[in-house]
What does this fold into?
Amino acid sequence: MAALPEPFFWREPHFSDVTAVAELEALVFPDPWPPALFATEVGQPERFQRLVLAPSGELAAYLFACWQVDELHILKVATHPRFQGMGLATALLTAAQEEAERRHGAGLILEVRVSNRRAIELYRHLGYHVVGRRPRYYQNGEDALVMYRKVRPTILQRLGLT
It folds into this structure.
């Protein structure tokens, strides 16, 4: 599995984590998901979810993703401001990529605010590229970039037809 910086550790979320996840969500996003939405995601099939915890047990980062046909859709990824720049988001996104590879997925897809330059650069560094734009996607009217990272070649590429 993807390397996580020492001494952090990760695990799947539990219902008892929803409050902490929602609090971090509200801290880092201008239009946060409500706690009830996270509660509906925890434990559902066809999901990939990880929490990164500091040695103290404090929530440092999280990733929530769901399978949509053969693509893993990254729904949410966030790092607490105190822990940014330590490689936690990179480790989470790498773990999601490994899960997509393990399950023979075609790729990973996500949306990101056009103003979130730091996240866009991280995604590009990890092999994502812009494949579209969703106008007025966010509550404040800001557009989202749709970014995609291919995991395996398409059937046409495997047959040498592209």
Observations:
- Residues 90 and 122 are 8 Å apart (CA to CA).
- The radius of gyration is 16 Å.
- Strands lie at 9-11, 47-53, 59-68, 71-79, 107-113, 129-134, 144-150.
- DSSP finds five helices and seven strands in the chain.
